[in-house]
Write a structure and sequence with these properties.
The protein has 393 residues and is an alpha+beta fold. It has a single domain (9-391), classed as Outer membrane efflux proteins (OEP) (Up-down Bundle), CATH 1.20.1600. The chain contains ten helices and six strands. The strands form two sheets. The chain has a four-stranded antiparallel β-sheet. Strands 1-4 form a two-stranded parallel ribbon.
Length: 393
């Protein structure tokens, strides 16, 4: 049986194809999203900031004045009572509330941006674990072959059919195979610990030895347009522009007069006066340059968004081209390995004495290198697809 399972590439005939991890991989990522302590802390922080954004969206508190005045020499008492309610026009028109809603929406996008980074880190770790799981299967086979050869050469040494040099080569081959498996296991444990840390300290198993089916969109331009629309980084940047324009409208509203309405009562022993009144505050100097500042800020944000969009477009164009090249390389590797799997023939030739042990190890080493290269190519392809997937989610 060939040790490498070929990649299956499915090309959907739809305008936009999504790259998604499947089966156990997606289950692991869902578990990490639920248990990750960083994301839990971010969720709590977002809720607190949302509440903070909504603390300044209401009218100012009314002011109540009460004065009790006495004139002792004439035994007169006067009572003054006043109630004033400031009326902020931007608040009455909902400008502050709209701005708070936009800022809260941006907090959601920023959380999704952090979530995207955490899940990408976890996804790459899962890919590495699957790679080392698959490599472990291959190394176990190599160790089994090396053990059989070492036992065979020990028996031949005891029978005087080979010399000690040939016997030592077989033992060295066994030693190398055992150490390769041990080093791979050390790396697997290290990756598992990193994944457990992302899972809030809870153990999580990744036992898969085959990569999930990879999905590559057939058209880059259509995919990237949908990815830009869904990506939380750009949604956050777009929302930042919405907030800046909301601040610009609020700055314009700050030039409107501020009103206040109130009631006043004055009571004397024999007379009583009461009535309603209004006040107005005319803005002349306090908000100078605020509108221009807000407008220039909006322009700068738009320019930053355009620049970032261009850089992301070029970056993911490169990733898409890299994925296609890795796909072709992976398929070539599989065809070569399928055509040149001479392991069974080599062991027969060795047992028949047609080749020496060093020739056997050298020839088998070429095949092992091809298998390792194929596994590494598949791992790199999965990592590229993982980055593309997280960009579009």
């Amino acid at each position: 049986m060939n040790p490498i399972k070929p990649f299956v590439f499915i090309f959907f005939l739809i305008p936009l194809a999504c790259l998604q991890a499947q089966g156990p991989v997606e289950a692991v990522l869902q578990e990490i999203e639920k248990n990750n302590t960083t994301l839990a802390a971010l969720r709590s922080g977002v809720e607190a900031e949302k509440l903070g954004n909504r603390t300044g969206i209401f009218l100012a508190d009314p002011q109540v004045d009460l004065f009790l005045l006495n004139k002792s020499d004439e035994n007169l008492r006067r009572t003054n009572f006043g109630l004033v309610q400031p009326l902020d026009i931007p608040t009455l028109l909902g400008r502050r509330n709209q701005l708070a809603q936009a800022m809260n929406q941006q907090l959601d996008y920023r959380y999704l941006e952090q979530r995207q980074q955490v899940l990408l880190e976890a996804h790459l770790l899962v890919i590495d674990l699957i790679y080392h799981n698959a490599l472990a299967l291959e190394l176990e086979k190599r160790l089994q072959h090396a053990s059989e050869i070492a036992r065979s050469y020990q028996a031949m040494l005891d029978a005087g059919e080979v010399n000690i040099l040939e016997h030592n080569k077989a033992r060295l081959n066994l030693f190398n195979a055992r150490k390769a498996l041990e080093l791979n296991e050390i790396e697997r444990r290290s990756l598992s610990n990193e994944l457990q840390a992302l899972n809030g300290g809870k153990a999580i198993a990744v036992d898969e030895t085959e990569f999930p089916i990879a999905v590559l969109p057939p058209d880059f331009q259509e995919w990237v347009q949908g990815a830009f629309d869904a990506n939380p980084v750009f949604r956050s940047l777009e929302q930042e522009l919405v907030i800046s324009r909301g601040e610009e409208r609020l700055a314009k509203a700050a030039y409107w007069p501020e009103f206040s309405a109130g009631y006043m009562m004055e009571a004397l022993p024999d007379e009583r006066f009461s009535g309603f009144g209004m006040g107005i505050s005319i803005p002349l100097w306090e908000n100078r340059n605020t509108i221009r500042h807000a407008r220039l800020k909006s322009i700068a944000i738009q320019q930053h968004n355009d620049d970032l969009s261009l850089r992301y477009l070029n970056h993911y164009r490169g990733l898409y081209d890299q994925a296609k090249a890795l796909q072709e390389s992976s398929q070539d590797n599989y065809r070569v390995i399928s055509s040149f799997d001479n392991a069974a023939l080599l062991i027969k030739a060795l047992n028949a004495g047609q080749i020496s042990l060093i020739e056997y190890m050298l020839e088998l080493g070429f095949y092992y290198d091809a298998v390792d290269l194929s596994l590494e190519t598949e791992r790199q392809l999965q990592k590229v697809l993982a980055r593309m997937e997280r960009f579009a989610r």
